[in-house]
Design goal:
The protein has 132 residues and is α+β, with helices and mostly antiparallel strands. The chain has a single domain, classed as Alpha-Beta Complex (Ribosomal Protein L22, Chain A), CATH 3.90.470. The chain has 5 helices and 5 strands. Strands 1-5-4 form a 3-stranded antiparallel β-sheet. A two-stranded antiparallel ribbon has the order 2-3. It is globular. The chain starts with a strand and ends in a 7-residue tail after the last strand.
Length: 132
């Protein structure tokens, strides 16, 4: 059963300016992204698109949780990417607690991007107790 949906766009150039800023870019990366996300994105040729897609995914999840950016930190929402598997959402800290309150036990994530815009769409779902 669908509990909530969330969608967000992130401008690739805006995120690129933030992650590449000479004075506070490293701080921005550490505040917003997990070490695994940073490692994944930095290996990509078009890394800014990957950072922007993850930023959009975090905000889309926060919308689905009904918190916006209040109550859930960016690092508490993680986009996990394993070879051959679609990107997945992993929650930490307050995000886990909020999902439990809402009964969310499954996430679906779609990411897409161009050189200008990244978009994330999430569906938060609660399994029906009668499902196998």
């Amino acid at each position: 059963m669908i509990v909530a949906i969330g969608v967000d766009h992130a401008e690739v150039e805006r995120i690129a300016r933030a992650v590449d800023h000479p004075k506070w870019g490293a701080r921005f990366r550490r505040r917003v992204f997990t070490s695994s996300e940073i490692e994944y994105c930095e290996k990509r040729r078009r890394y800014a698109e990957s950072f922007a897609a993850r930023f959009a995914a975090k905000e889309a999840v926060m919308k689905a949780l009904g918190t916006g950016m209040r109550g859930v930190a960016f690092q508490e929402v993680e986009v996990v990417r394993e070879p051959g598997v679609a990107p997945q959402i992993r929650l930490h800290g307050q995000a886990v607690k909020r999902a439990e309150v809402l009964g969310i036990d499954r996430w679906h994530l779609a990411l897409t991007h161009t050189d200008q815009l990244s978009t994330a769409f999430v569906v938060a779902e609660r399994r029906d107790p009668s499902d196998p």
